[in-house]
From TrEMBL:
Pfam families: PcRGLX_1st, PcRGLX_2nd, PcRGLX_3rd. Keywords: Signal. This is Six-hairpin glycosidase-like protein. Residues 119-483 form the PcRGLX/YetA-like central beta-sandwich domain. Residues 1-19 form the signal peptide. The keyword RNA-binding does not apply. Residues 491-913 form the PcRGLX/YetA-like C-terminal alpha/alpha toroid domain. The keyword Signal applies. InterPro entries: PcRGLX/YetA-like, PcRGLX/YetA_2nd, PcRGLX/YetA_3rd, PcRGLX_1st.
Length: 921
């Protein structure tokens, strides 16, 4: 045995050549256009230390440009060596297909000595950043989150950048009720509370602006709707990436958001009306080409050169050279001041313009899905382009261009269009008389909604959007705008290869590369691919888009109606139920597929923001699946589960918004002193009290808290020692329980971060309580990563407690009885749990148990089995509203758990599948 493991260890060392440079490539195709990017890289334990490692990046060809690289550490191994790094590179002139990043053991040079093009000036009044291509200023107080944007030639192309918010105090329930004049309409604008800038700015500067929306003109309203704006500025870049987050802290019955936007003034003084250009985005790089005062199509021709200059966005020849029949009559040609693009549905946008307020709007032929990047500016003065990532997917969105004929034009990007019906965050039903736990539990039996009065609140949910700004010295060719618009939905990202990520173990050791070495594993790979493509298609077929909804998927299908159960209690929005987030991210890690990354990224941006609470008593808790993302009364850590955000956090180079979500999760343990997740089913009479020990589950609850603590420890965040203490204390507590994880519940003391036996078994005699849900919200991933992180330092007995849980969940009644003096009862989700069996088999090197894992994977009551069709069918014609691909045998619970079981079984006991007597190819 000993000899064998020695040789295995040696072979493993030979396999993993960590010394050389790391090959990285673009996610998907190499982009044609690049404005600076940030990316993350993993490193094996024990190789590099923060203070004596220098990172460099190089292209492949021998005349590759020298690329400046800013590097920072996002995660550490237990021994203090580097686990994950973040890196930023500036825009590239020539874009190569792949690059190499080298880590060498030498003290990093002082970042300020670097080849930076960035100048950051931080004063009492504000911060300004000069990228070399533009300068942007950020006042530290007032209403303008951006003072001005100036090009390197000194042209101010944007100023007075503000957030705007419109609300109304009620909604007319029908057209008749619009005669009711008691509805108040309010206007708000950004009010700055805090502005800060990153300290290392050699390639990338990050300016963070925090504030709230402040009422305009009416004094009697508190500031509300907090925002965080993160401006990412790269050396030598003429573009700005802005990550915009809002938090809902209003009352859903009184604070209806009717418009939410970002607005800039664009100076146009001195630019002739006919040289002021409006570029509004259509479909697939299409653009509307207009000037405030059009001189084409007139009865008299100013001259071909004049017309083509205007169309192309160039300054026209001097008006003195035009045909005089036109130049003498310019005053009779209307100036169009205002343009409005409204994407109120994912299927179509409308366009209109008017000469000025008080005059009629004229429709402009429009299209389906606007790319969302617009421009306003002048041929000689230059201008500003503003765009929103996933513009049509986040409907109702819009773009307004106004005052194009004034000395300052204005461009407003609407994250929520004022042309749409108000954002309605009220509950979708009136409570149905569900005023006792008994009735609520009975209702759960029919609609599967876990309702409770007062719990269906959006107070504390958030939404994050990504905005793109670009400064131009002159009106750009529409081809240039089209190129930029192509990348706002899928900004170029660099990634390491799956094999390298796997070998570092920094993203866990429970997944492996796709395995097509034998017919059985090939079938499983095909099934995984099918599931991923199926969900991608369902998003489109069922229009899972919208301001709040985009990114989420649904829980269960309704075969009769050929639709997902969007209107049925606990079957509608999925809210991370049974970990689809883990499935899509792990599937990305092993395949490196761009489509999977983008899908998982949108899911993470949704589930991390909309499905969880960021302020208030429930900060750190998320909401169970439901018809509205916040409707259900089950508020739990299992939905906030930081493990769901972890892969994106590290792969993105430490996305600062997601980092903030990970910090918020650290306070989730406090909520147990206020809200008992098991209040409706608890039989022991226990009630929570802040600061007092709480009984919580060793599965869903501990897994969520432990993941957050481990990430904080890895990041060496400000609270990492507290996190490590709580993690160690609770893990020791679990290890000391007579039945370990099988105990099901423990008493957690928040004051000292320890875990005692549960109230039902204070003397630790050995309670047996196993739930099918315990290990399907990240517990296996978290424990596996945790045990590796700790290595020899893991609390005594933790590994064996986990291996016992892994073995006995799917063991026979007899085995359970023999080990625990009790059987676990009839447990579901056997397929998903086959990965626990596989984990045991791998760690105990036991072929018999490996075979059991494959049996559980293939033969089970509630998983996706090989005899299912594994194809979808088209339903069309009058049977459905719009044609859909349908696979009614799929539920998201099963898809997610099938995916995780398949990925992890192949990684842990893949060799045993060929020998297994179960499964077919
Ligand atoms: C790096 O060195 C500095 C200065 O000696 C020290 O303060 C810092 O803690 C070190 N960082 C790490 C991660 O070791
Ligand atoms: C008018 O609107 C207010 C505010 O939404 C509401 O309270 C009131 O009931 C409405 N009155 C009528 C007659 O609809
Ligand atoms: C156009 O030509 C006139 C007459 O030659 C001249 O006065 C004026 O400055 C020119 N305008 C521009 C913008 O060059
Ligand atoms: C932690 O707190 C609990 C509850 O107050 C207490 O019972 C336990 O003894 C404490 N443990 C340690 C190690 O202080
Ligand atoms: C493997 O596990 C089975 C089932 O628990 C057990 O009977 C057997 O002894 C184990 N084999 C080895 C080699 O440990
Ligand atoms: C429905 O789909 C089937 C199979 O793809 C196709 O043959 C048929 O023409 C479609 N019918 C309609 C009404 O689109």
């Amino acid at each position: 045995m000993r000899r064998l493991s020695f040789w295995i260890a040696l072979a493993a060392m030979a396999d993993t050549a960590f010394s050389g440079p790391i090959k990285i490539n673009w996610l998907g195709e190499a982009p044609e256009h690049h404005t600076g990017t940030t990316f993350g890289l993993p490193w094996p334990q024990g190789e590099y230390r923060f203070n004596d490692t220098t990172f460099t990046i190089s292209g492949q060809s021998k005349d590759s440009e020298q690329i400046p690289l800013q590097s920072w550490v996002t995660g550490y191994w237990r021994d203090g060596s580097i686990k994950w790094t973040g890196h930023a590179i500036p825009p590239l002139d020539t874009i190569e297909g792949e690059y190499r990043v080298s880590a060498s053991a030498s003290s990093p040079s002082n970042p300020s000595d670097g080849p930076s093009g960035l100048t950051v000036v931080d004063t009492a009044d504000g911060i300004s950043v000069d990228t070399g291509k533009l300068t942007i200023s950020f006042p530290k107080q007032g209403n303008s989150v951006v003072g001005s944007i100036t090009t390197s030639s000194g042209k101010v192309v944007g100023e007075n950048g503000k957030l705007v918010l419109h609300t109304q105090s009620g909604v007319a329930e029908d057209a008749f009720a619009r005669a009711n004049t008691s509805i108040d309409y309010l206007n708000f604008q950004s009010n700055i509370l805090d502005v800060s800038v990153s300290s290392d700015n050699s390639v990338r500067a990050l300016v963070t602006v925090r504030g709230k929306h402040q009422v305009v003109d009416k004094g009697d309203r508190d500031d509300w709707l907090p925002f965080v704006l993160r401006f990412y500025l790269y050396a030598n870049s003429d573009s700005i990436r802005l990550v915009h987050t809002i938090l809902f802290d209003g009352k859903p019955e009184e604070d209806f958001v009717t418009g939410l936007g970002l607005q800039f003034d664009v100076p146009l003084d001195g630019e002739e009306f006919y040289n002021r250009h409006i570029r509004l985005p259509g479909v697939d790089g299409g653009y509307l080409h207009e000037a405030a005062q059009g001189i084409t199509g007139l009865r008299r021709d100013p001259g071909e050169e004049v017309r083509s200059a205007q169309y192309e966005g160039k300054a026209t020849p001097n008006v003195s050279t035009w045909d005089e029949r036109v130049s003498s009559r310019l005053q009779w040609i209307p100036v169009w001041n205002d343009y409005r693009l409204s994407q109120l549905s994912p299927d179509g946008f409308t366009l209109k313009k008017r000469t000025k307020p008080g005059q009629a709007w004229i429709n402009i032929p429009a299209g389906t899905r606007s790319s969302g990047l617009a421009y306003l500016g002048g041929a000689t003065h230059g201008g500003l382009a503003v765009g929103l990532r996933d513009f049509w997917k986040k409907y109702p969105t819009g773009i307004d261009i106004s005052n194009a004929g004034a000395s300052k034009g204005r461009i407003t990007l609407w994250l929520y269009s004022p042309e749409a019906a108000p954002l309605d965050l009220r509950p979708y039903h009136d409570g149905l008389g569900l005023d006792t736990y008994e009735k609520q539990l009975d209702a759960l039996e029919i609609t599967y909604e876990d309702y409770e009065p007062g719990f269906n609140t959006p107070y504390g949910i958030a939404r994050t959007n990504e905005i793109f700004l670009q400064a131009f010295d002159a009106t750009p060719a529409t081809d240039d705008l089209a190129l930029a618009s192509k990348y706002i939905d899928e900004p170029p990202v660099l990634v390491a290869e799956p094999a390298y990520i796997k070998d570092t173990k920094a993203a866990g050791s429970y997944w492996a590369l796709p395995d097509t070495s034998n017919p059985k594993s090939t079938t499983i790979e095909n099934h995984l691919d099918f599931l991923v493509r199926f969900y991608q298609g369902q998003v489109e077929d069922h229009r899972w888009y919208g301001f709040l909804d985009h990114g989420d998927i649904m829980h269960t299908y309704d075969e009769d109606r050929h639709t997902w159960r969007y209107d049925i209690g606990g079957y509608a929005w999925d809210n991370s139920e049974l970990s689809p987030d883990l499935f899509f991210w792990q599937y990305f890690l092993r395949t490196g597929r761009a489509d999977v990354y983008r899908f998982a990224e949108a899911l993470t941006r949704h589930t991390g923001e909309v499905d969880v609470y960021h302020i208030g008593d429930w900060k750190g808790l998320g909401t169970r699946h439901g018809v509205q993302h916040f409707a259900d009364s089950a508020k739990q850590v299992r939905i906030t589960q930081p493990q769901y955000r972890k892969y994106f956090y590290y792969l993105s180079g430490g996305d600062e918004r997601v980092g903030e979500l990970l910090e918020e999760a650290l306070d989730a343990d406090k909520t147990y002193g206020i809200l008992d997740p098991r209040r409706k089913v608890r039989g022991d009479g226990w009630t929570p009290e802040p600061g007092k020990p709480v009984a919580f589950s060793l599965g869903t609850d501990w897994a969520g808290l432990a993941a957050g603590w481990l990430i904080e420890w890895e990041r060496r965040g400000p609270r990492w020692q507290e996190a490590k203490r709580k993690l160690t204390g609770t893990a020791q507590g679990i290890a000391r329980l007579k039945n370990g994880f099988v105990t099901g519940e423990g008493l957690y003391a928040i004051t000292n971060g320890t875990l005692l036996p549960p109230p039902t078994d204070p003397d630790n005699q050995g309670r047996v309580s196993v739930s099918h849900l315990s290990a399907v919200f990240g517990l296996p991933e978290v424990v596996s990563e945790l045990l590796e992180y700790w290595g020899d330092d893991a609390p005594d007995g933790l590994e064996s407690a986990w291996l016992d849980y892994c073995y006995y969940y799917g063991a026979t009644r007899e085995e359970q009885n023999a080990r625990y003096g009790d059987a676990f009862g009839r447990l579901n989700l056997v397929q998903g749990h086959s990965r626990l069996t596989a984990y045991y088999a791998k760690h105990r090197n036991n072929d018999t148990v490996a075979e059991r894992a494959w049996k559980e994977f293939y033969i089970n009551r509630d998983g996706l089995t090989a005899d299912q069709p594994w194809v979808s069918g088209r339903v069309n014609g009058s049977a459905v509203l719009t044609p859909v691909d349908e696979a009614p045998w799929i539920s998201t619970n099963e898809a997610a758990q099938y995916g995780l079981a398949a990925i992890q079984d192949l990684a842990l006991v893949g060799d045993a599948v060929t020998k297994s007597s179960y499964g077919t190819s």
